[in-house]
Queue: 3 jobs
Job 1
Amino acid sequence: MPDYHGAVMPSVFSGADGEWIKSMLSELGPAARGKIATRYAEVYQVTWDSEPVSFKQENKARHEANTRLREFVRKYSSASSGLTAKPKLIGE
């Protein structure tokens, strides 16, 4: 698995999603990243374990965990919640 340079990452995820997950988590505040990474791993593992067809496990787990992560980031990212200020224009 690639090295994510100390980034908070879920304990289980598909390597194909690593950079995307890192990018999504970076949109959250530092306090939320660990909690959300843990929740991502839980959803991924539970979904994997509940899929009885072995060749469908990874796809279903990725879909469920990634969908939840995307929705959470859309709702709670610091950029969309107004916690960041617009940059000043030259002359302001």
Note: The CA atoms of residues 48 and 54 lie 9 Å apart.
Job 2
Amino acid sequence: MKILVTGAGGFVGKYLVERILQQGHEIVTIGMGNMASFQKLPVRIYEIDILDTNALLLCMKKEMPDVVIHLAAISNVPLSWKQPALTIDVNVCGTINVLETLFKTNPNAKFINIGSSDEYGLAAKMGQPLTEDILCQPQNPYSISKYCAEQIVLQLGKQHDMNVIHTRSFNHFGPGQAKGFVTTDFAYQIAAIEKKQQEPVLCVGNLEAYRDFLFVTDVVEAYIGLIETDVPSGVYNICSGKARKVKDILDMMVSYSKVKINIVNDALRMRPSEVPFFVGNCDKLKSVIQWNPKYDFEQGMMDVLDYWRKE
């Protein structure tokens, strides 16, 4: 099978490319930067902006992929507030470009669009695990763009009679993830404190929220399942289904520290959470692919901390 991955140079993309190769598939990558790690791998590399329809069409015509898994996106929420128009362009118009150029070249191909649990937004205020049939209430430009892209590609899929799958992927973490995410920010600060690059004080915000976390390799295994299995078009949650308190995650990571660390509440970070409980239900996903999260959560936390110690 020939698989095309957009956003291949990103955090999840690098893990996914490696896993696809292990499965013995032919692979084509599209990205804008961070592609150097693929130079020695048996993959074809295209440095293409997904807003460049002509370049995308030429790539699709040349490669004729059987599956496209679309990871490329602006995924930083603060950036989406600063540049909402660019966020919509990339996350909505760019996604349409990828699907439409695929349709023009191979309408029988499968299109997997990677979305976000953030699409649920205030719908999570109900305080129970979220299922795919719950009406989304996204609350920032990033999540709005993802929900908009979801709705458009599903309708285009029906119009074109294509197999279109959209994931609502919940929080995932692992070595190589950029700062700006809760587990990464905790690990980065602890590593900096251990190396005396930061005072032994870890400033935190609201720790009372409950969230749903998966290690990155478990998320990738779900994507592999969706690639390799005949799955009906539609929306699928990718999540653990387990509620983890942010404070418990911090306590776990601090317990691994080689030095004593003081936890200090930072008034500037203390924003009350409108959604104290944000957890998914993945029964629908498990009904169509053979998948269960396997990576030990505590080991994952140690892996992230060790990554930042080396960095």
Note: The CA atoms of residues 121 and 139 lie 6 Å apart.
Job 3
Amino acid sequence: MSARGRPAADLVCPSCLTALEIDDEALDCEKCGARYPVVAGIPDLRLDFDPYIDVDGDRDRARELAERARTTDFAGLVAHYWDTTRSTPASRAGRYLDYALRAKARGESLLGAPSIIAESPDAPLLDLGCGTGGLLLAARERGFTPWGVDIALRWLVIAKKRLDEAGAEANMVCASARRLPFAPQSFVIVTAADFLQQGPDAAELFPEAARVLAAGGEVRVTGASRFSLLADPHTGLHATGFLPDRWRERYVRYRTGGFDPNIRPRSPAECARIARRSFDRVEVHAPFFAETEIAALPSELRGRAALANRLRRIPGLAGLAARFGASFRLLCRRPRKARR
């Protein structure tokens, strides 16, 4: 952030898409009069909010984590977050910490998947739902200029710690994937890892991704498959996606003692159908696992990931792996004319 009155580079008002001006504490839109605060050094341009916490609670949590980040490392900060999140059982906290530590390896898999994009130095990349910033760090190391967006301000503080610890830089903005604060055609690549199951409106990312994607660019999105024959990564239960929604909720509650209504696995076909409203070309693929991600997986999962890489090369089996595997990947190109 810098001098008062200068337009904020690359950011626009998410409501009216007008360039913003900044002062020490906020970003202002002269056209519609909106004022967006800067919290813990991160612009908060949300029009929608995190379903897990109210906006004031999220901002307070972000400030507390930013203060904590002064005296602890990235892993310690994530552990502290889960230790102090009372709604999360200790049995899950360890699993969530491990998931966060492996985020960079997952980002390398998504960035290393087959692509028609010729990567060029400093190409702008947008990661939606960037979480703890693993993909942002992987993108920075590949020479991209990464931007991270997440609806949870507290996670952006944690992501910033990860980047700072690695001596890397990324631009971070708190915003909704449905109302992005960027001008049209701003990014060569848009990514969204493990995103399509996050909430009932997650699939609405496609119109906005199409709007901010530059000509010739591509969108890479991954999600948990509803019809997976493997264990659901969120519940640990097998084949629950084959149940009707109301039966699935009852079964998950019975087996696990709880149910998160904000997690809704979708089928590849459903997501592709939605994506085709915004893109002329949409491809469904089985997931790709980079060697770094395979090495970071628990030993019992490494063989499964290596097998998935082999199956995706066999045309007849690749489609089955995408439909019934644990996850799938969408590759979207040629945006249709965007409307806002």
Note: The mean pLDDT is 86.
